[in-house]
Amino acid sequence: MMVNIYSYSSKYFEDDDSIVTKTRTNRTSLPTRPSLETVIRLPMPVGHMERYDLVYQLYDEYDTKTLREFQEFVDVFPAVDSRVALEHWQEATEELEERKDEIRSSFAAGETFAEIAARATRDQAFTALDLEAKYGRAVNVLVLDVDETLRSAGGTDNEIPRDTLHMLTEFYDAGVPIVICTGQTLENVKGFAIQGLGSEIVHSGSLSIVYEAGTGVFTPGHGAQTKQLLYEDLEESIRTVFDDVRSRVLPEAPEDLRRGCHLQGNEFNVTMKPNYETGSADAREIIDEALVYLIDLLADAVGTTLEADGSDAGATDSGTTGGDANGETELAGETVADWTRAFYAAQDPEIRAVLEGEGAYPALDAADVPDSLAAVLDRIDVAYYEADAAEIGSLELNKVVGVERALDVLGVADPFALVMGDSKSDLRVMEWAADNDAGIAAAPEHASQDTLEHVLETDELVFDRGKSVDVLQTAYALNRLARLG
Length: 485
Known about the structure:
There is one protein chain. Helix 4 packs across helix 5 (110-119), helix 10 crosses helix 12 and helix 17 runs parallel beside helix 18 (449-457). The chain is of the alpha/beta class and 485 residues long. The longest helix is centred in the middle third of the chain and has 29 residues, at 281-309. It is 48% helix and 12% strand. Strand 4 and strand 5 (227-229) form a beta hairpin. The protein contains 19 helices and 14 strands. It folds into three domains: 27-135, no CATH class; 141-232 and 397-483, 3-Layer(aba) Sandwich (Rossmann fold); 235-394, no CATH class.
């Protein structure tokens, strides 16, 4: 797990002869544990001081690595109809309990320490201790992105690992609701959620799905609140723009885009996906082209809206008319298409880089975009996911809006969420959690630059590709420690 944290937290220790502080090291090679006299005179709350010492003792004196291996074997052992296999599982279960009993009998909070040792590494346990000291509360809801977070095309063969799924069931059993927050369609998410977690959990009333990056929320078991189509609350003019783009995106696409892309089956957002392996050079090339095409198609649709409202300040170029001409409508001496490209290039450096690479970047200052056009574009999001997708969505409907609605339905009035994600849409949720003291954030090492920077600037919960379970285990340990008060 790539968590850069203090071997001895600088919140607890000041520099002393044998104590290395304010330097980041790997806890697998801890310095000598400070003497009791040294610890007592340091400015650390007594409860946390004792807990730190006990956690050190736990990992120093017990074979926690073997304990975790037994726990993992028992947790994820496949259901097979075999007497021999069942006997092996039973033997492992008995050995696991014996090892846990040894820890239980050695600590006043033995059950807590036994469970932490069985599921969290030394690094994860100390990270959890630092988080508990900083926030003083347990995670009470999980907000989880799926693609390239829980699962990874490059690390888990695009499947959610079994150990990750099992940790999610542990949180569910502990009464922690789960919010799956993704850009995917509802049907896709429901499918793998039921397959991975089981129908009982999905329909328990404790799981909510925020789909299409916040355009809808699905929370089974809540009657009239079960499915909420948030896009229906948008103004008709904005819905008309999306309807226009959606109806034309494939029929009017150049032949190479029609062959190389498909339209994700969204209810509202317009998302072009590659017909190549995600992350490949071919996927990157086709999605870069699709991004430029989508921006220009959006410009056409917005141009139609401005024309209908009488908002355009210029005339059509060369006397052209019809849908294709509206992107060429001139505003302040430039086409709507060029203004739209400049607007979104200024919003996102990755979009600008693609436009430059495709020879489609206009030499225009986004600050000069006419007000009538900017007023519409300010409400529409263009998202670029390198070698994965190009998408148009509503800025009035994003993952934050969806998460807030999901929490309301789930009855989580005072959230302290573990937010896990890799993209800019996930970053918005992370920033919302930080601004409202409503949780902590974690991201994979390959997350977008802005997302990674946010995580590193907060609690540094960065995990390896395909290893989301590392952060879930840390949160599990945090919750166990928080119960001790």
